[in-house]
Amino acid sequence: MDKMMNFLEDKLVPIASKLGSNKYLKAISGGFIAIMSASIVGSLFTMLGNLPFTAYTNWLAETGLGAILALPAQATVDLIALYAAFFIAYTLAKEFNVDGAGAGLASLVSFMLVTGRTEGAYATTYLGAKGLFCAMFIALISARIYVYVIQHGWVIKLPESVPPNVANSFSALIPTALVVTVFLVIAGLMTLTSYHDLHTAVFTIIQSSLMNFIGDNIFAFTFFQLMTNLLWFFGLHGGNIVGSITNPIYTPLALENFALYQAGEAPKYIISGSFSRCFISGGVGSMFSLAILMTFLSKSQQFKTLGRLALPTTFFFINEPLIFGIPVVLNPLFFIPLMLLTPVLGIMTYFVMSIGLVPIPIGAQIPWTTPPVTVCMD
Prior knowledge:
Layout (H helix, E strand, L loop, with lengths): L1 H20 L1 H12 L1 H13 L5 H10 L1 H11 L4 H16 L4 H16 L1 E2 L2 E2 L9 H20 L12 H8 L1 H18 L7 H18 L2 H16 L4 H25 L25 H10 L3 H14 L5 H6 L6 H23 L24
Helix pairs in contact: 2-6, 2-13, 3-5, 6-7, 6-8, 7-8, 7-10, 8-10, 12-13, 12-17, 14-15
């Protein structure tokens, strides 16, 4: 055990630390967190308009309230890529201590540029989940160009007497123009290919391939669970580190499930952004049961007190009091249960969903602190 621990600490921790501090991964993660509130609001209104009561849904249809309750989802979940393009670029620019709003706007303009117009209107196909990967690439590239130009001083500088908001607008002119020009060229070149546009190319080559290979795949999911737990064992935030890689894959799958639910169809992806919340209770390692045991059955007054403190928080997926208070971190006694519990629960949950015993999550976007009893809905 000591040899294994030393090996993992020497080899894994430095890699995980670099991933956790990577500006681009942090920008993706931060961007998704920034748009979460809009996704949650849209999901809540959709669920409110689709409660499983026939008399209620018939009343909504007859009064026209159903169509009204559908509007928040159309303005949030159905346009998720649009918001991601802005906030990922915004977050990346802030990582470099550069004006985030200007970078976000340049990214948003570039995103709409490559999306293009059809018969006088913007195509909506790639404004939602299908356009997320393209939005991420555009946001990262456009923000990096924007930052590069700003840092090299290629900006219009006005006298100090000019109000700051006006001066900032002029400072953003040159970097925004360069960003838009780059994506204008890309949009033009894509028309010469068989894909015709950047969205189709990214979705076909990258996003759909990753979804098919990694997305709804229990083996890939189990691997990511193991890595998350292993990082937490060393005191690193495995959720943030691994989530920066998996969220761009699992979030679109959840949104596609939600789109099917909105259309009155059954969700098709078992593993999505909602899957793990169906079997993990109490944060990493599913420690809610541990908090209960410590609170009511522990013979140690110290652990009983810690259990009482941690029990309310673990119910909402916050279990740092247990991870660092027991501690679980670097504790060989907890290594095996921490590593294996959630992967085993995940495999069992996948099995009962695959045979139809338990319904597949509809993909509603909810706060990560939502208790698991409210997550799995049909």
